Amino acid sequence: MTFLKTLPPGFSKLISALEGLEIAQQRAFAESALLKLYDNQVVISTSNSGLSESSEKGLREALLFIYRCAEERKVSTEDFLEDIRIFTPLNDRSAQLLAKLWSQRAKYAKGAPIITNEQDSSDGEKRQDSSSLQIGEEKDYLVSMDWVLGFSIASSECSKLHVPQVSLQLNIAQGEGIVKSHRLELSMSEFQKFKQQIESVALALERS
Q1: Among the listed ranges 52-56, 62-66, 111-115, 188-192, which one has the minimum average pLDDT value?
Q2: CB 129 within 8 Å of CB 61
Q3: How many other C-beta atoms are found inside a 10 Å radius of the C-beta of residue 94?
Q4: Which of 89-96's residues contact partners 24+ apart within 8 Å by CB, and which partners?
Q5: pTM of the predicted model, to two decimals?
Q6: Within a 10 A sphere around the Cβ of 160, how many other Cβ atoms?
Q7: Nearest to 22 by CA among 120, 166, 127, 158
Q8: CB of 25 within 8 A of CB of 46?
Q9: What phi, psi does 148 have (nearest 5°)?
């Protein structure tokens, strides 16, 4: 079933930005699109992608368009992959990544548990992406959290940004006395969503 035959103007240019990213970043952008499609409030950071703000926004919109069209037509994973290969300029690796996430779309629905990112290594094995936090395993737990409010004045691509952002550091205990720090750069809207998630978890714990 074809679902991508009619594409909006400029779509190919917007979606092409995906190929310039590392596979972990590609996955983060695609997961963010699926979460938005299903109104899930879980935040996956796409900071430090190297893309300009306008390119990031365009890529998010292009990915959301793909998944929204697929959802409306209720296409299978096989048809999804075929259309991505035919109607987009993406290489096969990126196409297969988007199709794989589409096949797992149920776990991105609203109310689903927090998701972790996995990345395919060269030998075909799975390894945990260092940009994601593996939450839910008994051996891992949050020790402390620090945040700093900053203001981006400029970047290598834009001389005048003036964008507020939050630098977040999560310190995770991983057993045997090992504590690892994970840093995230969030926009104000992403930080507000993250704050709401933490408050919801704290409320649920109080009631349990």
Answers
A1: 111-115
A2: no
A3: 20
A4: 89/12, 89/15, 89/16, 89/19, 90/15, 90/16, 90/18, 90/19, 91/19, 93/23, 94/18, 94/19, 94/26
A5: 0.56
A6: 8
A7: 120
A8: yes
A9: -135, 130
